[in-house]
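Please produce the structure of this protein holding magnesium ion.
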Amino acid sequence: MPEQPYLQVKGLSKAFGSGPNAVTALKDVSFTLDQGKFLAVLGPSGCGKSTLFNIIAGLMAPDGGDVTLQGESLLMRPGRTGYMLQKDLLLPWRTVADNITLPQTLRGIRRRRALENALEDARACGLEPLLHRRPDELSGGQRQRAALVRTLQSGKPLLLLDEPFGALDAITRLHLQELLTSICLQKRLTILFVTHDVDEALLLSDSVLVMGCQPGRIIGQYDLPQEKPRTLKTLALPRLMAVKAEIMALLDQEVKQHAKE
Ligand code: ADP
Ligand code: MG
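Below is the modeled complex.
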């Protein structure tokens, strides 16, 4: 028997509304992801990326299709994946320490022990001096670092990151991208990452899934030819520039097609 894929997304479809207002958010979306790999889902706003993640996270039922992790369905089973969004969703009344330890304390681990467990990730993300602060005392980048550590502390085998750095300025974003790359390589994390930024996808991932709109569907898939970690310098290498040009042409064609409709 052939070995089953680690994560398998098979024939997912999802529509919202009915009649002339109906939106096909996902149509026959299928792909696989190996353990320890980083897949970027790239596409214009409104093409169904968050819908796809909500289904994989078990928060939303699809109209058809299935998602399995090591052969077990994830459909409508929340809590099997770690999920991080553009909005950090830190609890404002809790300190950074209490926010990042939340996934553990919810599992019944004592606060002190939970903090000991979280300290390595907190240090790696430069949060140690900020542990006593509350979210409104942090910058946008610091908040996202705290949200990242909390997501890592979920201890889930598959992490879904939905445009986590989308609201940050370019320099802060680059810093977080480097941080995420080094943590992923060190821990061999399996990551699905949504972005609408081609450079971000090329910087972070092993492969890129390109989506188009209405219906939300996969219009291209690329395995990236360059070893990680990548830097802005490696993005300028001809073989990555060639992939970027192909992806840009694909997205351009997609956008123009919609403008005509
Ligand atoms: P993306 O994350 O790629 O920007 P979404 O998955 O959020 O896209 O949305 C895909 C499409 O489905 C959009 O046209 C959006 O308006 C629509 N949509 C998403 N969620 C809902 C919902 N709960 N009800 C109605 N339409 C929705
Ligand atoms: Mg979205």
